Amino acid sequence: MRPVAFISGASRGIGRETAIAFARAGFDIAISARTVTPGEVHAHAVRHADGRALAGSLADTAEAARAFGGAVLPLRMDLLDEASLRQAAREAIGHFGRLDVLINNALYQGEDLNRPFLELETQTLTRVAQGYLIAPFLLARELVPTMLEQGGGTVINITSGAGECDPPVPAGQGGWGYAYGAGKAAVSRLSGILARELGERGIRAYTVNPGVVATETLEATLGEQGVHALGHRAAPPTLPAAVLLWLATSPEAPAHQYRTLHAQPFAREQGIVVE
């Protein structure tokens, strides 16, 4: 029986490359995002400075993943819509009958996400709470019981340095704002709770910070000035994808729970090879 992974935010960037990496490794995958077909336009979506939508869709990711012979289930899911979250989780279980890995990669990315503090409105914080706190909780709450019935499974939550440290420059000049930092701080707390409460029943949980990764979203969100201010060379999205696969499959992975794993140095330390 092939293992099954559920990967949110799989239309582009790290989520897309993670879906492809898991498919290549022999997993059947459920992939979710709002953008199912190329060119779709959504409210609260990141756009290029000229107004263009970012490239990528679930259809594109599914086509690339199916080349490896496994089953791929694309699921339309909106982090701000609790009904769509529950529906996607239940469709995945109904289709595959099991789940071995959940990767909470999707995030709210509205243009208001990194506004300076004095321009920030409570509506933004409400959406961030839904996308960064409630959505990962709901997916885990819907899917972990199936893992427990099977005897175990793995949950990986994608965080950011923004949830653990202060920005190098102000919001509006390429730095992140309070809303994004607070959202990612919330994401960072989920894995340890799951591991502590459910570890004896077979649940492994990890928090991963991909670091600076060369994606369209990063450039569109922070701009070239912001990326430069981070002071790091951007890694390809295939690198964090390889780390996530290692955490889901390596017998050595459980020793790395209860801390945030920084994907780029971690890959070097463990000799994780990017496909």
Automatic annotation (TrEMBL):
Coiled coil: none annotated. It is an enzyme of class 1 (oxidoreductase). Its EC number is 1.-.-.-. It comes from the Bacteria. Keywords: Oxidoreductase. InterPro entries: NAD(P)-bd_dom_sf, Sc_DH/Rdtase_CS, SDR_fam. GO terms for molecular function: oxidoreductase activity. Belongs to the short-chain dehydrogenases/reductases (SDR) family. This is SDR family oxidoreductase. The lineage of its organism: Bacteria, Pseudomonadati, Pseudomonadota, Gammaproteobacteria, Oceanospirillales.
